């Protein structure tokens, strides 16, 4: 069960090409590591929302290019004062049958609190200055994003390398972005899924 300390930010753009060009214009090279694939993410919590209330998360991720699923526990984030970048521990493991695991969580009393989907392409992002991190290009029902992930020092250097002001990047998760979007429309939180879901976890 690998454990790692993760920091990340997101950049939004009109298209994935525009986001790639933004990075290459700043001198970064992108090495494709995982071709475009579909991800279906399910968040679970206790009936009392004990995870949400302590800023933790339990996620089951299904992918159309892999058998099985990935289960992730996200620990309580620590927010760095200057940049707002959140740093948190993640525990992750792979299981052979994600759909059965989803049913198991439900039988154990966990509730599905949110579901979000995306098409993701993963690159290794490198710069001549020595910066080395991950770039996940996401096509979501609410727009295009690149999620930039590494350790805290790498993300802080990336922000400087790109000349980003605090308002130029996003530290919120996809559930938070969808919550704010629904709130702005006067609606309760809705799942962030495509009209024709590829996998439904039944």
Write a compact overview of the structure shown.
It is built from 5 helices and 9 strands. It has helices at residues 16-25, 50-53, 98-107, 152-161, 174-184; strands at residues 3-13, 29-45, 57-63, 69-74, 78-79, 86-95, 111-126, 132-140, 143-150.
Describe, in plain words, how this protein is organized in 3D.
This is Class IV adenylate cyclase. Residues 4-180 form the CYTH domain. It comes from Chloracidobacterium validum. This protein has 202 residues and is α+β, with helices and mostly antiparallel strands. It has a single domain (3-184), classed as Hypothetical Protein Pfu-838710-001. It is built from five helices and nine strands. An eight-stranded antiparallel β-barrel has the order 1-6-4-3-2-7-8-9. The longest helix has 11 residues, at 174-184. It is globular, with a radius of gyration of 17 Å.
Could you give the topology of this structure?
Blueprint: E1 3-13, H1 16-25, E2 29-45, H2 50-53, E3 57-63, E4 69-74, E5 78-79, E6 86-95, H3 98-107, E7 111-126, E8 132-140, E9 143-150, H4 152-161, H5 174-184
Antiparallel strand pairs: 1-6, 1-9, 2-3, 2-7, 3-4, 4-6, 5-6, 7-8, 8-9
Organism: Chloracidobacterium validum
InterPro entries: Adenylyl_cyclase_CyaB, CYTH-like_dom_sf, CYTH_domain
Protein name: Class IV adenylate cyclase
